[in-house]
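Notes to self after the call with IL:
- keep both proteins in one doc
- input above output, always
- annotate only the second one for now

Protein 1:
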Amino acid sequence: MASVSETFGNFYNSWLTRQQALLDQLLLAIAPESEGSSNVDRQKQVIDQVLAHYKDYYEEKAKAASEDVLTFLSPPWLTPFERTLLWLGDFKPSFIFRLLAGSVEDLTEEQRGRIEQVRVETRVMERELTDAMARVQESVAAPAFLSLARRFDRHIIDGELPNMVEVVEGLKNTMLQVMERADGLRVSTVGSVVEVLTPGQTLVLLAAAGQFQARIRRWGSQRDAQSSATAT
């Protein structure tokens, strides 16, 4: 039976292929808005396709993570460089505001105010989730857990193994809950930002996100290739 790492890794590679095709559509759809409705309708169609694509990713991720959450905290299907950018297994929700600032230049004052409110709320939630994961990590280093781990390592399992399994499963469940909350924040933050933007602005933002993801993937692959060449 294939591992979660293998099955989700295959899914992710296919997802990236589709991502590139959607990025091409985004770039084609970015054009001066016309007076007619056909151009706006086309923009909304592409936006819906891209958001549905991300929805597929998080749905598949949720199913796979429920089987092996630890794999998603350091995903082997990503390059080492990509993994250095992760926060709780994926991009940090507030990163969308950096992309927005660097790509969308025609925000109105009203839009800026609404987005700032979302940004503040997002940062508060990020801190809460960072603290929650830190508490999980601290519990792994707690004396009670380490004591069980040492006894397990010495194969002194007389009555101890069930306790060890129970503790580990409890920690994994807590990690899963934190990661699920983090994914929920990622999705809700993007959704809240998109609600503020016009279709044209949303296209630009989504294109910037797709280009950034493709770029760090390419950089990571190039670094791996250079490391392999140096090693040989």
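Protein 2 (the one to annotate):
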Amino acid sequence: MLYWYRQFPNREPQYLLRKGFRAKEVITPYSDAAFATETESEKLSCNYSGSVESLHWYRQYAGSPPQFLILDYSGYVTHATPPVPGISISHRKEDKHVDLIISSSAVSDSALYYCALRPTVTGNTRTLYKNLKKY
């Protein structure tokens, strides 16, 4: 399955075209937006279908490429290098649900957040969806 996206400066990626067989695994955000005040804990959530091994979270600031935050690969958590302070992941396999938890929100956390089933920074946008965080 091939997916084409385009991204203009300071804009979110835009889906253009899909070619190939229907994906067995799909990931979708629980909601399109999340709002928090400073110092509040915030949870961004995605649900998925199929059997997956890896769940990735990324953050993207306006005008910048996506930044890897954290990964759950078959129960093993890998943080960005260096780790992003206050970021953790909760994966409930029985519910097919994954959360990104920001322990103490700050204005600097305002960005687009992506949950993905495959690495996306390397260019694979197969199942890329977004969660939007605004203050």
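Annotation: The two ends are 36 Å apart (CA to CA). The chain is about 0% helix and 50% strand.
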